[in-house]
Amino acid sequence: TTGGRLDVLFNNAGIGTGGAIIDMSFDDLDRVVSINLVGVLNGAKIGYAYLARTQGSCLLNTASASAIYGTSGLPVYSATKFGVRALTEALDGEWYGAGVKVRDLVPSFIDTPLLAAPAGSTNYSIKQVVPNAGLELTGVDAVAQAAWDAVHGDKVHTYVGKTADRMAFAARWLPGRLRKMMRRSLVASAH
Which of 81, 68, 72 shows the shortest CA–CA distance to 22? Predict the structure, then answer.
């Protein structure tokens, strides 16, 4: 046993169900919110008692590059991941006095079996569509290194992958261009 000690809680909950909000059923909408946001809230609430017993411990949440700028075709997913990002910032302040760091990973597309899911209403998987759109898949080794760096570093948000880095830059310095890109991606996915 650990004697109640917990150094790191990797609070990773999420499903990639997406599509235009008008095409999603209310059950799918509720399921995405329940898993992606409520699951992370529950993990944080339950984990705090253990993390607070360990000075210098860390809650590491998983957000998404969709939390940098709302992603056309994934509005509910984006909303939940924005919520995770906000929760990370809020708890980092709230738990500071207890000696618990709160951080998040903000990855782009990670090369996992989750990407085998269909991309919207197409017959192609997300794993096939992402490279065709000029975006890269981030390997799990890069994500593992980013998680290590996040837990041991001082940045609240750790961007993972070239797409996440580019989106963070664009959201800060080129927001109009990013907005136009999201509009084009929605128009392209509608055809």
Answer: 72
Residue with the bigger pLDDT between 110 and 51: it is: 51
Do the beta carbons of residue 54 and residue 3 sit within 8 Å?
Answer: no
Q: Does 48 qualify as catalytic in the annotation?
A: no
3-state secondary structure (DSSP) of residue 191: coil
**Which residue among 48, 69, 77, 159 is the active-site one?**
77
Other Cβ atoms closer than 10 A to 13: 18
**Domain 8-190 coded CATH 3.40.50.720:** yes
Please write the tens of the pLDDT for every residue from 117-146.
766 666 777 777 777 766 778 888 999 999
Q: What is the pTM of this model?
A: 0.85
Structural domain boundaries in the chain: 8-190
Tally: H helices and E strands in the chain: 7, 6
